[in-house]
Amino acid sequence: MKIGIVGAGAVGGAAAFALINQGIGSDIVLVDANAALAEAQHLDLLHATPYCHPMRVRCGTYNDLQGCSLVILAAGVGQAPGESRLQLLQRNADVFRAIIPAVVRAAPDAIVLVATNPLDIMTHVALRLSGLPPERVIGTGTLLDSARFRALLAERLGVATGSVHAQVLGEHGDSEVLVWSGAQVAGLPLQRFAALQGVPLDEAAMADIDAGVRRAAYRIIEGKGATCFGIGAALAMLARCVLFDEKRVLTVSTHWGDIDGVQDVTLSMPVQVGATGAAFHVPPDLSDPELQALVRSARVIRDALTALGY
């Protein structure tokens, strides 16, 4: 199983390392406009393989993506401290106009995973530029946000993250929607489990968790310049779902025709992911305030797409 990674920076490198650690795929090809960076990442990753899983790792050009089952797009301009994801829009759209045609020419049958910010808009741009069916262009969306939500709830309640089920929907960004109404721990509604634990989960605690999820990227970028490990792990998990046909339901960014009147928008909702890509959309059960927030989030994305000419 051959995987291409376009963009060998922090996110692309972290994704490749996660793939090697978990034994996902058999052949990884790194492509970057900076050939020296791609070569350096290739060597560093290659030296990790004796202690991880046997895997071929190399760097190359777009032509070397031929035969890829999956191509990860991690190329683009990084998010600067204090900069919103939407402010990245025009700069990274220009990057995609250059790379998407080359990727599709080399690997026309691959499923494309998008990790470039602003995520939902770039996934929409990749879909339109590629001409691929919507199910074969998938953004990482709110996978990372949902993981942050689960991790903070688990920390608050003193349980393992694997026992917490909670989703973040909408934009991977400032307008994202934490779905409190559907959150569960060990199969129990969140508030019931919190009460059994004797852990207060009042409005102040919820606001603190909300801020922790919503502002996480800004805090990380301010401290070390970029987020990479969380999104790298999310990309590896998403790649595994595709390559091994796991059919997991994930909060990934895909194209939706209509979100309560907002037309032609790409954003994160629950989607079943497997060998054919984003195979089945799962409409979520939301409270009225959550639905209203989701519609507002969809409008933020649609307005940005309209301004960009999509």
Helical proportion, percent range: 40-55%
User: What portion of the residues fall into strands of 2 or more residues?
Assistant: 15-25%
Global morphology: globular
Widest beta sheet: strand line-up: 3-2-1-4-5-6
What does the main sheet amount to?
A: 6 strands, parallel
Low-confidence stretches: none
Q: Given the structure, what is the number of helices?
A: 10
- Number of β-strand runs: 14
Oligomer: single chain
Task: Report the span from N to C terminus.
Answer: 33 Å
Structural class: alpha/beta
Following the backbone from N to C, one meets helices and strands in this order, namely: EHEHEEHEHEHEEEEEHHHHEEEH
Note down, in words, how this protein is organized.
There is one protein chain. This protein is of the alpha/beta class and 310 residues long. The chain is built from 10 helices and 14 strands. The chain has a 6-stranded parallel β-sheet, with helices on both faces. It has a 3-stranded antiparallel β-sheet with strand order 7-10-11. Strand 5 (111-114), helix 4 (119-130) and strand 6 form a beta-alpha-beta unit. Helix 1 packs across helix 9, helix 3 packs parallel to helix 4 and helix 5 packs antiparallel against helix 7 (203-214). The longest helix has 21 residues, at 288-308. It is globular.
